Amino acid sequence: MSNEEAHDLFVIGGGINGCGIARDAAGRGYRVALAEMNDFASGTSSAATKLIHGGLRYLEHYEFRLVREALMEREVLWSMAPHIIWPLRFVLPLQKGGLRPAWLVRLGLFLYDHLGGRKLLPPTSNVDLKRDPAGKPLKPMFTRAFEYSDGWVDDARLVVLNARDAASRGALILNRTQVVSARREGSLWRIETRDVDGQRAVHWSRMLVNAAGPWVDNVIAGVLGRNNVHNVRLVQGSHIVVKRKFTDPRAYFFQNPDGRIIFAIPYEQDFTLIGTTDRDYTGDPRKVEISGDEIAYLCDAASEYFAEPVKPEDIVWTYSGVRPLFDDGASKAQEATRDYVLKVEAEEGQAPILNVFGGKLTTYRRLAESALEKIGEAIGVRGRPWTAGSHLPGGDFAAGGQESLVASLRARHPFLDPRHAERLIRCYGSDATALLSGATDVAGLGRHFGGTLYEVEVRWLIEREWALTAADILWRRTKQGLYLTSEDVAKLEDYLEGAVDRLKAG
Ligand SMILES: Cc1cc2nc3c(=O)[nH]c(=O)nc-3n(C[C@H](O)[C@H](O)[C@H](O)COP(=O)(O)OP(=O)(O)OC[C@H]3O[C@@H](n4cnc5c(N)ncnc54)[C@H](O)[C@@H]3O)c2cc1C
């Protein structure tokens, strides 16, 4: 295999970091391949709190570099993908005799407003909870709050849109394909993969990128065959979803007596998302799930604030993920750095590898740019940074233009239920029209699977977004799982069995 025939980069991992690096690199003209062993975003990247945020809490740990970079990314990412990313205001109720005095919180918010290039997002303001609707669902003891800006992201869609864009720029994107071994042969990597049908294949690449998130050390140990590997600290975080606790479009930032914080966020039209927790994790990242203690912790913490308590029986869904934090030796899980670390190993004359440790959804684009700098140093520079100012698929409309897009989709397809139209724009942006493929009435949407999920969307997800299973469709490409009954899911599974093969066969 000659250098000219090999890929320039082979990326292990289809989470946000792998897909972000693959997209950036493909756009600069590198020959890129990426393998994801399961589904895109099936690891940590669909289990986040889903905030595009500077991380107000990280100021307490003096993570100024990270906070500044993340704050600056908020508006960059919003204009890159205004369908899946939008601003969110947070109401932070103040407590008399709380852990942090009001002046300290205000100082943090002052820094937050001024550290990171805020142009469109409104600044911090004071809220009188006795008059403002934000006070309504809270206990009457909360009378004052601050309100500040951050952003919301559909995390799993952010990943798949990066994968789609990378593919449209020439990257070879392999879903459900595990990297089972990687060995250096001279100046190239020989990479062996195994796909979902057990088929093995060999790929050659000038450089390897290990973006395996919580599996990053497993890849170094198992795939590359090294001993005594310990770079990341795995920290579990869980969320609960309950029926909507409040109608206000703002989210809440609650401070807990243990010094931690949790969020309560409007979620998927009819729900409230509450999270998260922080606890060290040692098991298989794929098997992580919420514990009874975490459920009790989240219910209790939210019930300190809401007038109507949150009870375990209110929970309609939970999810858990594992943060792959770079191990900086911090004593508590919540104090471990949230910043990312990129390390290149490149012995003279040998094919290089870049290992990615840590990283946030919010900083994925900057992480990819930093990775590309290191890749350029290792195998030669190609292209220039280009992703700031670019659009992800469906995101080619003005930030803040969601409502007019919904209106024009409804004007073109008047039979669409308004909630359906809104969801389609929030998932697919300007691609929603193509997805509906000229349907002129409800029958034109094909089979109805429950919620607002129709055959036309399922086909799009199989054909354009690598969806194979009901979980891919219901819990990652969409969150329609919140609306479907178990009979609905069985119908979808039946449909998928035949449809995936038929559609793939063309
Ligand atoms: C509870 C929680 C809340 C969070 N909240 C936020 C937030 O609000 N905002 C924010 O910005 N960030 C947040 N984060 C952080 C963010 O979600 C993660 O940092 C990010 O998703 C990590 O992405 P990744 O690509 O590194 O890892 P992953 O998403 O886990 O991707 C790694 C992928 O590698 C694949 N893989 C592993 N081994 C192999 C192999 N041998 N071959 C092929 N594929 C392989 C895995 O299947 C996996 O899909 C949160 C994280 C958690 C856990």
From TrEMBL:
Task: Tell me the ranges covered by the Alpha-glycerophosphate oxidase C-terminal domain, including all copies.
Answer: 387-485
- Give the EC number: 1.1.5.3
Q: Which Pfam families match?
A: DAO, DAO_C
Catalysed conversion reaction: a quinone + sn-glycerol 3-phosphate = dihydroxyacetone phosphate + a quinol
Q: A GO molecular-function term, please?
A: glycerol-3-phosphate dehydrogenase (quinone) activity
The residue ranges of the FAD dependent oxidoreductase domain are 8-342
Q: Which cofactor does it need?
A: FAD
Q: Where are the transmembrane segments?
A: none
Keywords on record? FAD, Flavoprotein, Oxidoreductase
Family as reported in the entry's similarity comment: Belongs to the FAD-dependent glycerol-3-phosphate dehydrogenase family.
Q: Which PANTHER family match?
A: GLYCEROL-3-PHOSPHATE DEHYDROGENASE, GLYCEROL-3-PHOSPHATE DEHYDROGENASE, MITOCHONDRIAL
**Name recorded for this polypeptide:** Glycerol-3-phosphate dehydrogenase
